[in-house]
Amino acid sequence: xxxxxxxxxxxxxxxxxxxxxxxxxxxxxxxxxxxxxxxxxxxxxxxxxxxxxxxxxxxxxxxxxxxxxxxxxxxxxxxxxxxxxxxxxxxxxxxxxxxxxxxxxxxxxxxxxxxxxxxxxxxxxxxxxxxxxxxxxxxxxxxxxxxxxxxxxxxxxxxxxxxxxxxxxxxxxxxxxxxxxxxxxxxxxxxxxxxxxxxxxxxxxxxxxxxxxxxxxxxxxxxxxxxxxxxxxxxxxxxxxxxxxxxxxxxxxxxxxxxxxxxxxxxxxxxxxxxxxxxxxxxxxxxxxxxxxxxxxxxxxxxxxxxxxxxxxxxxxxxxxxxxxxxxxxxxxxxxxxxxxxxxxxxxxxxxxxxxxxxxxxxxxxxxxxxxxxxxxxxxxxxxxxxx
Length: 388
Hints:
12 strands; 18% strand; Heat Shock Protein 90; 5-stranded parallel beta sheet; Rossmann fold
């Protein structure tokens, strides 16, 4: 248990000696420090923060009343109980002045040991109570901050829910209306074969876009409810790039686009396989959406302890005002592709979530009319030779 610290202030050495002697006789567990005047006493009080202060009234340079008022103005010392010790200023009016200034108690000189013991114990109990109140206030402040944090998170979650429901209502229903409408046209017996081929193609593209949206919605819902598992392992990024080029080759060819891997070396990364493939799916699909009759280049290279992966297109590009909003779910970004393809922006938000879960970053560089390059980083495995 902490020994109570008592500061005694008096300009008379014999008075200090009496106080120290009495306090030691009362309880040897007290730690006592002394000051010869009010100014030094105030400096010691602010530095040491004693549990109790006993001060003389009449002192040169700074008397007891001035000392009390000074200490009561400072946040660090204003809660410390102070006992005024006086042999001259003993009238009722004088003692009232001391109490009004901020003294918790007083003791008359010559000091009586029994009286001093009682007043010191009472003041120390007051000090302990003040410390307890201060700790409780700090705890309440901490709890308030935690509650405010929870409220803020709930508000963000509620905004995310609203955005999520908006996407379902607007962007998911619309494609199905297209599918149903075109299907009705196909039922007509008079439709020419060439017309049917056109509408079948429309159904196929709408179904593909809707399926991609459903995948993103599912992944986003699992991410927001923490039901998607994060299972990082060694991955050869070259294989992931090659596999995703194969998966999206048909989609790219429909717009006369070539997917090209420009990576120059084998690089192992430590990341979740499913999440990386989801990132590739959305970035490649986005690049195809905003390009036509061109190339899309995928690349990976080492930079310190990270692998930087890029998906570069030579399409329509992105306005500077829009770039800062791309990874914010609460901002509605809807830009049509070169074939009037629609998008929700959810894919890029999902990329941001998955890259962050894998301890990486994602960013974009773009110029209107010249194309865009999306970058994301992943941790490189420590030993590139065996992927450990």
